[in-house]
């Protein structure tokens, strides 16, 4: 009897908490009356996007943040810098219905890390030029795209269904991993390339010229790559590896790889 009473009490408390939280959630429909709001921002070298807003980043000498959207949506968006990371997200207990256009335009002298957690997109309007490393990550269904990257090393990671498209890369190393159904498209030139898929996503990097390349597929994903000197490939599952170039050394199961 005591156990039943305790269970009943806990159920009531959980239901009450859910009801209160649901009641406190603010539902907003975009007015479509568009405004632009400039936001004060401390200097940052990393961007973290949480939620469904879109970001357009442009590398420049100044640090700026500007929000364009409906006049009743813009005030609900939070932008703040902590430990060098600019975070963009909606305020708590906010549910946006049909947000319309919502673009956060940002700029900074340096950018080394870009992360999307959610469905928002990030466009790197003029690429990134740095003598450091660049880390690009999508967790969820959002996309990241840009053209013109010069760096020491670039790391690309997709966990979910989002896509990453980076063109005109110039780097010493490039490491790409996919866990999920998202796709990665790359072009440019690098020294060492490492590709890994665990899932159904695809890596299209035949346009990224590499000296040495290693490719690993676990699942149904496909890798298209390039190798000038050495190609190492491992495939388990129904996926495949296809390559361009004329590598002098190939370490791969012949049945699972093909030349493009």
Low-confidence stretches: 12-23
Largest sheet: 21 strands, mixed
Helix amount, in percent? under 10%
Distance between the termini: 71 Å
Q: Quick one: CATH class of the largest domain?
A: Mainly Beta
Number of helical elements: 1
Q: What is the correct CATH architecture of the largest domain?
A: 3 Solenoid
Any idea what the radius of gyration is? 22 Å
Helix- and strand-based class?
mainly beta
Could you walk me through the main structural features you see in this protein, from its secondary elements to its overall organization?
The protein is mainly beta. The chain contains 1 helix and 23 strands. The strands form 2 sheets. It has a 21-stranded mixed sheet that branches. It has a two-stranded parallel sheet with strand order 1-8. The longest helix has 23 residues. The radius of gyration is 22 Å and the shape is elongated. This is Putative auto-transporter adhesin head GIN domain-containing protein. Keywords: Signal. InterPro entries: DUF2807 (IPR021255).
Features:
about 260 residues, mainly beta, Pectate Lyase C-like, 2 domains, 21-stranded mixed β-sheet, two-stranded parallel sheet, about 60% strand, DUF2807, signal, Putative auto-transporter adhesin head GIN domain-containing protein
């Amino acid at each position: 009897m005591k156990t039943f009473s305790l269970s009943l009490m806990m159920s009531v408390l959980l239901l009450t908490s859910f009801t209160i939280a649901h009641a406190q959630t603010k539902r907003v429909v975009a007015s479509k009356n568009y405004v632009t709001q400039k936001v004060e921002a401390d200097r940052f070298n990393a961007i973290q996007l949480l939620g469904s807003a879109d970001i357009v980043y442009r590398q420049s000498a100044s640090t700026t943040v500007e929000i364009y959207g409906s006049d009743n949506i813009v005030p609900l968006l939070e932008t703040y810098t902590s430990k060098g990371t600019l975070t963009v997200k909606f305020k708590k207990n906010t549910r946006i219905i049909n947000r319309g256009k919502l673009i956060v335009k940002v700029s900074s002298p340096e950018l080394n890390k870009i992360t999307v957690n959610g469905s928002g997109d990030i466009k790197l309007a003029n690429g990134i030029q740095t003598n450091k490393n660049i880390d690009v990550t999508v967790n969820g269904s959002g996309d990241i795209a840009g053209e013109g990257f010069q760096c020491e090393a670039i790391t690309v990671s997709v966990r979910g269904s989002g896509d990453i498209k980076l063109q005109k890369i110039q780097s010493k190393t490039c490491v790409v991993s996919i866990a999920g159904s998202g796709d990665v498209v790359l072009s440019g030139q690098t020294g060492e390339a490492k590709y890994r898929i665990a899932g159904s996503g695809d890596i299209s990097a035949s346009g990224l010229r590499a000296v040495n390349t290693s490719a690993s597929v676990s699942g149904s994903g496909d890798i298209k790559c390039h190798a000038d000197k050495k190609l190492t490939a491992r495939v388990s599952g129904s996926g495949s590896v296809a390559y361009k170039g004329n590598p002098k050394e190939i370490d791969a199961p012949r049945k699972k790889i093909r030349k493009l």
